[in-house]
């Protein structure tokens, strides 16, 4: 299966942050979650990746190709991976942003407390 370098980099990011144990696990999950959704496959740099998929996924892809939902199993797999990958990365960004916002809130509260203490000392 050929995937654009950008998607493989994103898969590697998800593996690196512990969302998945390997690229293959990430791809399997993407296929499981996103097989029935459609996105256009962009042109661009690709890398080849070999993975073993459960027979059920292959049968589902065969069906979607047979009913002309996708032009090929490769396209079905690509789109499922892309959809799930972007959804997972969006959730990761939200989690990270939320933690960063919480950290900023704590820092602001600490700075405000220090400011109040300085004013109190200055009055004395």
Question: How would you describe this protein?
Answer:
The chain is mainly alpha-helical and 124 residues long. The protein has four helices and two strands, in the order βααβαα. The protein has one domain. A two-stranded antiparallel sheet has the order 1-2. α1 packs across α4 (73-123) and α2 packs across α4 (73-123). The longest helix has 51 residues, at 73-123. The chain is rod-shaped and about 80 Å long. The chain starts with a strand and ends with a helix. The model is unreliable at 35-41 (pLDDT under 50).
Tag the structure with descriptive keywords.
124 residues; mainly alpha; two-stranded antiparallel ribbon; 70% helix; rod-shaped
Order of helices and strands: EHHEHH
Number of strands: 2
The largest beta-sheet arranges its strands as 1-2
Quick one: biggest sheet?
A: 2 strands, antiparallel
Strand-residue proportion: under 5%
Structural shape = rod-shaped
Radius of gyration: 23 Å
**Mean pLDDT figure:** 75
Poorly predicted runs of 5 or more residues: 35-41
Structural class: mainly alpha
Termini separation comes to 73 Å
Which percent range fits the helix content?
over 70%
Number of domains: 1
Number of helices: 4
């Amino acid at each position: 299966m050929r995937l654009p370098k950008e998607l493989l980099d994103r898969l590697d990011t998800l593996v690196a942050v512990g969302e998945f144990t390997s690229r293959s696990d990430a791809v399997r999950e993407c296929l499981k979650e996103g097989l029935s959704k459609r996105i256009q496959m962009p042109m661009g740099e690709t890398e080849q990746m070999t993975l073993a998929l459960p027979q059920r996924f292959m049968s589902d892809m065969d069906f979607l190709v047979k009913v002309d939902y996708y032009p090929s199993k490769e396209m079905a797999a690509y789109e499922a991976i892309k959809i799930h990958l972007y959804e997972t990365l969006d959730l990761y960004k939200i989690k990270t942003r939320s933690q960063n916002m919480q950290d900023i809130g704590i820092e602001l509260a600490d700075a405000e407390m220090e400011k109040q203490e300085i004013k109190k000392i200055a009055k004395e």
